[in-house]
Amino acid sequence: MSDDITIVACPTCGIQVEWSENSPFRPFCNKRCQLIDLVEWAEEKKRISSDLQITHNEDWSDANSY
Ligand SMILES: [Zn+2]
Question: Mind giving me the DSSP string for 16-55?
Answer without folding.
Answer: EEE-STT-TTTTSSSHHHHHHHHHHHHHHHHHHH--S---
